[in-house]
């Protein structure tokens, strides 16, 4: 496996504080540029875990992109295969399918177009004008999931 496939950038104190604020606002119903609170069961404990994410609409589908790489939520979602997304009181259950690396480049470009101001530092030398080849080369370090909504859940948990 290439080093990019093991890429994982832990959140620092500033990022953790920002995430807590965004998570709180999203739970209150204030989505910051498409944010959702992701709920996914822990792969070891089975307990619900939560983290703020940016939901990416692209060509009629919905995607979750992991700008920090193979994080805990990514590992949990791989095992669970499903989760919930919340904004305010609205909670939607979904199934997830991880995309192969060869399909990620246009999604990474769109993700950067929308949220480079927030997550650009995690993409190192990539931006919206990066050549397709550079995006394809970096793709293994950025997990992407296509989500399909199953139902609307009455509660967050």
Automatic annotation (TrEMBL):
InterPro entries per the UniProt record, alphabetical: F420H2_quin_Rdtase, Split_barrel_FMN-bd
Annotated GO MF terms: oxidoreductase activity
Protein name per Swiss-Prot or TrEMBL: Deazaflavin-dependent oxidoreductase (Nitroreductase family)
Species, as recorded: Prauserella shujinwangii
């Amino acid at each position: 496996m290439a080093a990019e496939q093991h890429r994982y950038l832990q959140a620092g104190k500033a990022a953790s504080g920002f995430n807590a604020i965004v998570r709180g606002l999203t739970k209150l119903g204030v989505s910051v540029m498409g944010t959702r609170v992701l709920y996914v069961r822990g792969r070891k404990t089975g307990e619900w875990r939560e983290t703020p994410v940016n939901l990416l609409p692209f060509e009629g589908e919905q995607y979750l992109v992991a700008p920090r790489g193979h994080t805990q939520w990514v590992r949990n979602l791989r095992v669970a295969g499903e989760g919930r997304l919340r904004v305010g009181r609205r909670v939607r259950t979904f199934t997830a399918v991880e995309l192969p690396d060869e399909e990620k480049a246009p999604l990474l470009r769109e993700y950067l177009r929308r949220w480079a101001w927030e997550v650009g530092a995690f993409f190192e030398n990539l931006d919206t004008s990066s050549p397709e080849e550079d995006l394809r080369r970096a793709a293994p370090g950025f997990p992407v999931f296509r989500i399909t909504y199953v139902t609307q859940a009455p509660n967050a948990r």
